[in-house]
Amino acid sequence: MSGVGPQRTAAIAAKVEAFVRDVVVPYEHDPRRDHHDCPTEELVIELKDKARAAGVLTPHILEDGSHLSQQETAIVLAKTGLSPLGPLACNTAAPDEGNIYLLGKVGSAEIKERFLKPLIEGRTRSAFFMTEPAADGGAGSDPSMMQTTCHQDGNHWVVNGRKAFITGADGAGIGIVMAKSQDGACMFLVDLPDPAIRIDHVPNTIDSSMPGGHAVLTIDNLRVPADQMLGNPGEGFQYAQVRLSPARLSHCMRWLGACIRAHEIATDYANRRMAFGKTLIDHEGVGFMLADNMIDLKQCELMIDWCAEVLDGGSLGTAESSMTKVAVSEALMRVADRCVQVMGGSGVTSDTIVEQVYREIRAFRIYDGPTEVHKWSLAKKIRRDWKAAQSEKGKP
C-alpha cells in the first residue's frame, strides 16, 4: 500500500466525483444493454475511454503502479459508486478491482506484466472462477467443498470441473481459476476465451450492473502452463483470503456511494412532492425515514474506515471484513428500501436509479458471503476466543 495523504486523496476523489456526476450519470438511460439488462461491451469501452481522457481510469492505482491505502481507496471508490455505471467507467468494478489487488500483491513480475498491466489499463476484463454449482455439491460459501480438480502433466496443469455464478466470465479476457490438487487448492491465470472453458448458461439475476452476468460453465481438460500458477500447489486458499477481505470491503465502498446517490434522489423528491397540504419531508413518517438513512450511511462510512485501517495495518482482517460486510450490506439494504418507500410509485420505476440500487444491494447481501455465513464465522471466532481466554486462566 502507498499512502498519498489526505489532500491528494481528496483531490483524486473530487475529480472522480465530478466525472461520475457530469459524464457518467447521463449514460444511465443509455439503451446499450444486453438481454440480461447488463451494460454492453460497447458501452463499457466508451465509458472507459472517457475516464481515460479525464484522467480518472483506475484512480486507486498510482502512476508508479502502487495502490492507494485502503482508507484512501474507500474515499475514492465511494465516489465511483455514485452511479451504477461509475465503477465500470473508472475501472474499479468487481471482479476486476479485486483481481487487480490480488495480482498486485502476489503476482510474479511476469504475471504482472502479462495479466495485471492490461487490467490496470482497462484494456480487458477478468473473472474469478471459485464458486461451483450447488447441484454438484460444489463450493459456495464453503470453499473446502471444491470439486474442480487439477493435476500436473509435464509442464502444464490440467483442470476439470464446473463453476457457477462467475461474474463477467462471458466476455472476459483473463480468468483466475481455482481448483484442488492432491496438495490442496491451487490458483491459475488463464487467457480467455479458451475452448476448454464452455459457458453453459448465464441466468437472469436480480442485479444488472456487471457486464457478462454471472455464468455457469464447464471446464473440460483446460491446460495451463505451470508458470501461470499463482504461488505453489496448495496455496490457493491462502491467496483467496488475500483477495476476499479487501474485495468485500471495496464492495461496501462502491455500494455506499450508490446509496448516497439514492438518498439524494429520495431527499430531492421528498422536498418537492406535495401531499396533504405540505411537502413529504414535513410529514414525520417520511422525514424520519430520511433521518434514519443519514444515520445508517454515516455508520457504514465509519465501519468501512475502521476495517480499512485494520487492513492498512497489515492484518488479513478476516473478522473485521466479515463484520463490515454484514453491517454495511444490511444497513444499505435499509437505506435503499427507505428510498423506494419515500418515492412511492416513482421509486419502483426505472426513471431513476433508485430501484436498480435496491436490486443491486439485495444481491450484495448474498455475494462475497451471505450475512448468515459471516455471522456463523464470527460466532466460531467468539467460541475460539472464549476457549483461549479460559485456557489462559487455567480453567477447563
UniProtKB/TrEMBL annotation:
Gene3D superfamilies: Acyl-CoA dehydrogenase/oxidase, N-terminal domain (1.10.540.10), Butyryl-CoA Dehydrogenase, subunit A, domain 2 (2.40.110.10), Butyryl-CoA Dehydrogenase, subunit A, domain 3 (1.20.140.10)
Transmembrane segments: none
Cofactor: FAD
Ranges for domain Acyl-CoA dehydrogenase/oxidase N-terminal: 10-122
Acyl-CoA oxidase/dehydrogenase middle domain boundaries: 127-202
Complex formation: Homodimer.
Family designation: Belongs to the acyl-CoA dehydrogenase family.
Pfam family, one: Acyl-CoA_dh_N
Keywords: FAD, Flavoprotein, Oxidoreductase
Coiled-coil regions listed: none
Protein name per UniProt: Acyl-CoA dehydrogenase
Domain Acyl-CoA dehydrogenase/oxidase C-terminal: 234-381
